């Protein structure tokens, strides 16, 4: 095992490596416990703070327009999001999380056994510190959530 270099690139590569190596662990458990695919969480979290167009969502998630339509249709069907015309351009559809969608995001984030076992190596204090640092990174990208 190598030691992470405390440079922006070194930290980024280590974070990406951990996430990419273990993302399916969570996705499988997620789909066992919840009635929709993991991609619905990925989309809904992107409209948690503010509405976004379907085009913006598709670009942020790296999916094409037809796939995004399927995802948004599913969110709307489950009452987790709404899709409304943009007030200034009716051709653009804005996706917004509903109150039920926001509650669902909280439920997902409270799943007890979704994280890979590697998270068990962190103490409670270390998890709090990691959460603080992740919140700081998320605040630094405000508005540009991809």
Automatic annotation (TrEMBL):
<dbReference type="InterPro" id="IPR036388">
    <property type="entry name" value="WH-like_DNA-bd_sf"/>
</dbReference>
<dbReference type="InterPro" id="IPR039422">
    <property type="entry name" value="MarR/SlyA-like"/>
</dbReference>
<dbReference type="GO" id="GO:0003700">
    <property type="term" value="F:DNA-binding transcription factor activity"/>
</dbReference>
<dbReference type="InterPro" id="IPR000835">
    <property type="entry name" value="HTH_MarR-typ"/>
</dbReference>
<dbReference type="InterPro" id="IPR036390">
    <property type="entry name" value="WH_DNA-bd_sf"/>
</dbReference>
<feature type="domain" description="HTH marR-type">
    <location>
        <begin position="1"/>
        <end position="139"/>
    </location>
</feature>
<dbReference type="GO" id="GO:0006950">
    <property type="term" value="P:response to stress"/>
</dbReference>
<protein>
    <recommendedName>
        <fullName>HTH marR-type domain-containing protein</fullName>
    </recommendedName>
</protein>
<dbReference type="Pfam" id="PF12802">
    <property type="entry name" value="MarR_2"/>
</dbReference>
């Amino acid at each position: 095992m190598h030691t992470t270099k405390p440079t922006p690139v070194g930290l980024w590569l280590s974070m990406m490596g951990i996430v990419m190596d273990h993302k399916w662990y969570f996705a499988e458990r997620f789909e066992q416990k919840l009635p929709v695919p993991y991609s619905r969480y990925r989309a809904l979290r992107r409209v948690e703070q503010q509405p976004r167009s379907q085009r913006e969502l598709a670009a942020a998630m790296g999916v094409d327009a037809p796939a995004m339509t399927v995802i948004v249709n599913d969110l709307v069907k489950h009452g987790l999001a709404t899709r409304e015309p943009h007030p200034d351009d009716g051709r653009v559809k804005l996706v917004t999380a509903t109150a039920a969608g926001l509650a669902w995001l909280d439920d997902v984030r409270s799943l007890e056994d979704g994280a890979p076992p590697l998270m068990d190596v962190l103490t409670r204090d270390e998890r709090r510190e990691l959460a603080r640092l992740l919140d700081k990174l998320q605040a630094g990208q405000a508005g540009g959530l991809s």
